Amino acid sequence: MDLRRLRNFGIVAHIDAGKTTLSEQLLFVSGVEHRIGEVDSGTATMDWMAQERERGITITAAATRLPWRGHELDLIDTPGHVDFGVEVERSLRVLDGAVLVVDAVAGVQAQSEAVWRALERRRVPALVFVNKCDRPGADFLAALASVQTRLGAPARPIAYPIYSDGHCSGYVDLLTLEAWDASALVHDPHAELLRAPLPERVADEARVLHSELVDALADHDDALLRLVLAGERAPIELLQRALRRATLARALVPVLCGAALRHIGPRAVLDAIVDYLPSPLDAPPVQGRNPADGALLERPAEPAAPLCALVFKTQVDDHGELHFLRLYSGSLRAGDVVFNPRARQRERVARLLRMHAEARHPLELAIAGEIVAVQGLHAALTGDTLCALDAPIVLEGLTYPEPVIAMVLEPRSTSERDKLRVGLLRLTREDPTLRAEEDPAAGQWTVSGMGELHLEVALERLRREFRVDVAMGAPRVAYREAVRRGAAPTRGAQTVERTVGGDSQFGSAVLELSHEPPSADGAAVVRVGWSSECLIPPAYRQAIEDALRSACEVGPRLGFPLVGAHIEMVGGESRPGSDTELAFVQAAIAALREAAGSADVEILEPVVALEVTVPAEFSSGVIADLHARRAEIESVESVGPQRRVLGLAPLHKLMGYSTVVRSLTQGRADFTLRPRGHRPVSDAELKLRGLVWS
């Protein structure tokens, strides 16, 4: 395969913007599917899970491949609901490009912002498709303006919608100023897209947008700039090359338009993916570390290079575990033995597969740049690197947000306890944002996740896939503990010295516990540092760091996970011949408990950013209710006849909010909650909630 003709891209957006509808159209237009699946009727190919078809939403990212103009396009359709944001994050980790779908009526919405920030962090070039231009109230230019203002994106339209008798009937290609008539496609998806004269009613607007686009491209292309200054017309090939370079550099974001449900726009989207999104060769060589000495390594996107692949998703079903890989370099065949540096194990790839939603097609060979799935791995987890035996490398892993809501589960009969344990183990291996902790004494599990819908889906999977009948408690927020900002560091020192089977074991650790500021993305973290005076042998340090982070899962006050903590290893003693990893780990954990016991620790509660879109006549009631829930209203925006209310609120006050907002608005409101970190809870508030401070 020529890697220049390969595209890896994902479709991302807010829920109900039309991602899956667009994906279904792309499959049909490219000839992969001979029928068009529909989300509302539960026939969408990419929404293959039973719950996805019943709920009409995307829950898990689905992969497929489709051909277009002699190119191969690896597509990942991602969820839009914030509770399943991890599916988006881990997909963007391995994609070269993306298509952001924006609703022409609502414009940019909450999850669109979150996805765009992830694209910016990953430096992923993107296109924007303004969908639903056929809907009443659709405003392409307003949606474009929301992309520019709310996302801060350098967006420029390369298409402009055409309306006939109030209905979207086609679009103008702003590079060529050619009009395309799609009116026949609205009634027959097999009909041809026809070139048509530029309608006079849109000609002036189209020419202005064309001129602005050319001027914007000239800022990034010297040859084009010379033609513009000379007043000469630029050839289309030059405009396309300039647009591709600007898109790959993220200096410009092309914006297309259409109505996926009416078959308007998918062909233009496929053309833009081929013309403007990157191939694996356009991305810089992937960087990683040598697991032995931490030295920086690079792997070019070449099939002849040593194998380097990232496990970005794990899927569990009746056939076992399926691991999705992005190959960054080298090649892979069924039967190959690969090395997992994290697990320090060799693993054999039993089967190599090309996925089409849930359908599996065997492959003989996969090369650098491709996205495939494998069976047969036992130790691999999401975020692991797989590499050649003789050329080990560790890529940057994946980080996940902390759960914000929890629920207590227990089997309805003791005979189902083992089934529940197995089911939860498999679900948590598949979804890193789902956590499950067992209380053997009570026979209960505490399951934590990213929202009420997240937990609902997990419970339904337990019932359907693992046939476990569980009783559940009411959802509750997932609190955290943190060292208070400005608190004095506390110290712990412990030594483990003993004789086991005639062999002496020794380990000694001295550490200081202090406040750790939030990371760049606002997350509270636990960081372990090493003083130059610490004498603990380097060979044991990684094990000690892992053990300390595990110990922080139980905080010193109320037992909530400890975050926002900096653990500095400041001392210790080494006795060659008696040193053991286990003794040093135990000494470090005991020292941490000693330091945490005297630390000034506060309780944190999760805070969410909320966005409520409500008809104007109900907005005052909604705002009053939010004030009663201690929400901080940041702004109220007018979006046609709707009002968009933006603010922050403690998650504790928004439990069951969906029922309340439906009642307040006669079911006409739409709202989104997005995690926005944690903030301290006062002692008085803790007492009101029944949390006793120890």
Oligomer: single chain
What CATH architecture of the largest domain would you give? Answer: 3-Layer(aba) Sandwich
Strand order of the largest sheet: 2-3-1-4-5-11-6
Q: Roughly what percent helix?
A: 25-40%
User: What is the CATH homology-level superfamily of the largest domain?
Assistant: P-loop containing nucleotide triphosphate hydrolases
Largest sheet data: 7 strands, mixed
Number of domains: 5
What is the count of helical runs? 17
Rounded mean pLDDT is: 90
% residues in beta strands: 25-35%
Q: State the total count of DSSP E strands.
A: 39
- How far the N terminus sits from the C terminus, by CA atoms, comes to 64 Å
- By CATH, the topology of the largest domain is Rossmann fold
Low-confidence stretches: none
What structural category do the secondary elements indicate?
Answer: alpha+beta
- What is the global morphology? globular
**For this structure, what is the CATH class of the largest domain?**
Alpha Beta
Rg for CA atoms: 27 Å
Question: What features would you highlight for this structure?
Answer:
17 helices, 34% strand, Rossmann fold, 5 domains, seven-stranded mixed sheet, single chain, Alpha-Beta Plaits, alpha+beta, globular, Elongation Factor Tu (Ef-tu), domain 3, six-stranded antiparallel sheet, 694 residues
